[in-house]
Amino acid sequence: MSDIRIDKILGSRRISNYWWATTILLGGLGFFLVGLSSYLHKNLLPFTQSAHLVFLPQGIIMTFYGTIGILVSLFLWLTIFWNVGAGYNEFNNKLGLITVFRFGFPGKNRILKLKYNIKDIKSIKVIIEDGITPKREIYLKTKDRREIPLTRVGQPLLLSEIEEQASSLAKFLGVVLEGLE
Question: Range of 140's domain?
Answer without folding.
Answer: 85-178
